[in-house]
Amino acid sequence: MDGIEAAGQIHSRFGIPIIFQTAYSDEKILERAKEIEPFGYLIKPVQERELYAAIKMALYKREVDEKLRENQKKLRHALNEALRRRAEVAALLESSRAVLEYRKFEDAAKAIFDSCKKVTGAAAGYIALLTQDGSETDVVFLDSGGRPCDVDPNLPMPIRGLRAEAYHTGKVVYDNDFSGSQWASFMPERHVALDNVLFAPLIVEGKVLGLMGLANKPKGFTENDSVMAAAFAEHAAIALQNSRALMDLHKKHEELEKTFEKLKKAQSLLIRQEKLASLGTLSAGVAHEIKNPLNIISTSVQLLQMEENLSEEAKEAYGTIIQQVNRAAKITENLRDFARERKPEIKEIELHAFLEKTLALVEYEMKAENLQIEKKFHKDPIYINGDEDQLAQVFLNMIGNARDSMNEKQKCHSYEDLQKMGWSGRLTVQTGVSGSQAFVLFQDTGSGMTEEVKGKIFDPFFTTKGEGKGTGLGLSIAYGIIEAHGGTIKFESKEGKGTKFVIFLPLNRPEAGTK
User: Is this prediction's pTM over 0.70?
Assistant: First the structure.
């Protein structure tokens, strides 16, 4: 090792400034000397004043360099601190968003925990909530950090050890030598290995309701980690409070919705019953008063028709009169039936056989109108109790309405347009069992109903059919019949798409149709 190498070692190891004093001025030697960055290079002979000045400059330069290095160190520390603070603020903002974003506490707590774990550098942890009696905690979720953990996370955790200190004091606690501490003896078998732990309580209105645990941070937790964990635990506590408040609001909203629906149904039923009661009283009197004049008109017109040499115009006029008299008589008969409130004559009915017989009355005519009936009957017999005449009236009304709606659609569109739409006139009649009730579904591909029409279809005398094609009593009477049988009618309809009616009736044999 020559002088240049020795000087280089001294400079690099101890930071002592080097000044070369030599008689050599060879360029190669000078280049080697420059590599160790000397503070001076003096060629002999050297005067004392020159040497003193070189040493003074070397010491001054060393002092300046040390100050620069110190400043750089401080700047790096400040920069690292600023970056750390920035990361902490970003994590806290992310945690705050989770509080506002998630309705369920489980989702918010997971997001908050992940932010806390990221900023503190912990590898594992969990969030748990206190049980009602306050003796243990239930884990909301657990992150083992990749280490094996065979303990069931659904098992409650007794409040003891370091956890108990966090619960009882309401303050963050941590231990960086957990495996060697007194608390380690409380750990269950096959629990994830813990090098260090930190526990931050979730406090709501002054009460500790849960705990956020962090574990296995390289180099251990710090006081700053304690402060940050407390902030994140506060976010988790707010999320818990929000979640419970939202659950209470949602529950109350559902209860109010149910109460409102019941009130609407009760109001609708009350209005309908009042209408029917008033209508019943009126109907009985009107039907009686109208029947006699109608009979007189019908008899008189029939006598006139028997006269000889009637013109074609007169015959047509008399026929129209008879037609309208018969229509008025039919309305009168409906009014009388409506007012009678006749109790149904109940007997056991096998639903499928009864429907086959009812559908047979209209099947041929519907086929002639290019309308198909599709039967989807339950695989097993279904037995109900009912009045055959009244139920036939209901089913025929459903079929008739569907038939009219589909025929109306055929009139409103050309055959070519219907073909392009892929439309076919089809009435689906389906049966089934739902709990203790049988149901019959009538679904058509007709014109459907508007929202305004849907609100009025069970009102007496409301009809969308043309003059002379409906009295508006069909569905109102059907509703009353099904209600008298202990059943219900529900419907769905979309304008231009068709309508579905579902009639529910109590089963006579609960086991029937459920094999």
Answer: no
